[in-house]
C-alpha cells in the first residue's frame, strides 16, 4: 500500500484500488492493493468516509466481494464509478478462460459508437509474462481492443444465422501516451460496412481513453465470413504452406556443397 492513510478514525480518504501485481504503481500516494482494501473492509478498518475508484487488476471474485462489502458499508464506502464494474459476458469475447476477459459490458452511444470499460484481471494471459514499469503494456491494450470489436460485432452488427469467423484484413496502431492501471474506457467508432460475395467487411476505430485523453488508437478492417467457408479456406492454405515448406527444404538439401566448405573439412 502507498502512504495514503486508510484507517479507522480518519474522517475521509480517497483511493484507487488496483491489483497486487502492480507493485511499482502501488508505491504512489493514493493507491491501495486489492487484497489490502478487501481485508480492511472485512474488519471495518476504514475511514468514516472512503471513496474508491476501481482501477485495473482485480479478478472477478475480487470485484464481486468488493461490491458486497461496499454494500455492507453503505454510507461509509462510495464507489467513484457509481457501482463496482463487472465483466462482459465471456462468450462474446471469444475467450475460453474467464480471467482473460478484459472489458466490461458494451453500451451503444449512437451514430455507430460503442463504449466499454477496460477491466483487466492481473492474471490475464497478456500480462502473465510481461509487466514492467508502471504502465499497462501495448499488447494488453490491443487485446482489449480486439475484445471490444468482437463484442460489438457479435452483439450489435450480426443477425442470427450460421456461425461466422472474424478475419483481420488490416490493422494500424498508434500510441500517444501511457495507460496506467486506473479506470479507462474503450470507444468504438464504425467507419464503414459493406457486403461482400462471402460475408461482409467492417471498418472501424477503437480508441483507449484515460483521464479524458486518447492514449491509443487502433484503425481496423475485418471480414466476417461463414465459419464453414473460413475453415475450408484455412485448410487449403495450410496444405499449400506445407507443400511449399517441403519443397523449400528439398531445394536446400539439393544445393551443391560450396568448394570452400568442402576444402575446410
Q: Based on CA inertia axes, which overall geometry fits?
A: elongated
Average predicted local confidence, pLDDT: 90
Distance between the termini: 65 Å
**Helix coverage percent:** 25-40%
Secondary structure: number of strands: 10
Query: What radius of gyration results from the CA coordinates?
Result: 24 Å
- Which segments are poorly predicted (pLDDT under 50) over 5 or more consecutive residues? none
Strand order of the largest sheet: 5-6-8-9-10-7
Report the β-strand fraction as a percent range. 25-35%
Number of helical runs? Answer: 5
| Alpha-beta classification | alpha/beta
Main pleated sheet = 6 strands, antiparallel
How does this structure look, described?
- By secondary structure, the protein is α/β, with parallel strands linked by helices.
- It has five helices and ten strands, in the order E-E-H-E-H-E-E-E-H-E-E-E-E-H-H.
- It has helices at 34-43, 60-72, 138-157, 227-254, 259-263; strands spanning 12-18, 31-33, 49-54, 77-79, 107-110, 113-117, 164-175, 185-195, 200-210, 213-226.
- It has a six-stranded antiparallel beta sheet with strand order 5-6-8-9-10-7. The protein has a four-stranded parallel beta sheet with strand order 2-1-3-4.
- A hairpin with a 4-residue loop joins strand 8 and strand 9.
- It is elongated.
- 29% of the residues are buried.
- The mean pLDDT is 90.
The gist of it:
With 265 residues, this protein is α/β, with parallel strands linked by helices.
Which labels suit this protein?
265 residues; alpha/beta; six-stranded antiparallel β-sheet; four-stranded parallel β-sheet; 5 helices; 10 strands
Amino acid at each position: 500500500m502507498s502512504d495514503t492513510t486508510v484507517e479507522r478514525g480518519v474522517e475521509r480518504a480517497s483511493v484507487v484500488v488496483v491489483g497486487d501485481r502492480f507493485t511499482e504503481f502501488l508505491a504512489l500516494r493514493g493507491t491501495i492493493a486489492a487484497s489490502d482494501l478487501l481485508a480492511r473492509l472485512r474488519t471495518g478498518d476504514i475511514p468514516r468516509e472512503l471513496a474508491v475508484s476501481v482501477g485495473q487488476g482485480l479478478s472477478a471474485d475480487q470485484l464481486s466481494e468488493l461490491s458486497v462489502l461496499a454494500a455492507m458499508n453503505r454510507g461509509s464506502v462510495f464507489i467513484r464509478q457509481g457501482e463496482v464494474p463487472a465483466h462482459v459476458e465471456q462468450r462474446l469475447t471469444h475467450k475460453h478462460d474467464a480471467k482473460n476477459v478484459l472489458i466490461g459490458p458494451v453500451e451503444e452511444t449512437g451514430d455507430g459508437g460503442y463504449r466499454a470499460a477496460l477491466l483487466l484481471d492481473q492474471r490475464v494471459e497478456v500480462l502473465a509474462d510481461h509487466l514492467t514499469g508502471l504502465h499497462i503494456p501495448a499488447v494488453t491494450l490491443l487485446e482489449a481492443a480486439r475484445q471490444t470489436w468482437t463484442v460489438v460485432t457479435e452483439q450489435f452488427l450480426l443477425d442470427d444465422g450460421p456461425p461466422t469467423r472474424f478475419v483481420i484484413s488490416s490493422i494500424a496502431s498508434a500510441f500517444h501516451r501511457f495507460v496506467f492501471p486506473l479506470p479507462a474506457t474503450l470507444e468504438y467508432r464504425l467507419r464503414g460496412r459493406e457486403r461482400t460475395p462471402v460475408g461482409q467487411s467492417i471498418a472501424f476505430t477503437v480508441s483507449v481513453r484515460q483521464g479524458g485523453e486518447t492514449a491509443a488508437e487502433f484503425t481496423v478492417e475485418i471480414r466476417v465470413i461463414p465459419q464453414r467457408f473460413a475453415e475450408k479456406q484455412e485448410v487449403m492454405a495450410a496444405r499449400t504452406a506445407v507443400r511449399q515448406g517441403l519443397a523449400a527444404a528439398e531445394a536446400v538439401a539439393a544445393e551443391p556443397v560450396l568448394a570452400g566448405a568442402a576444402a575446410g573439412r
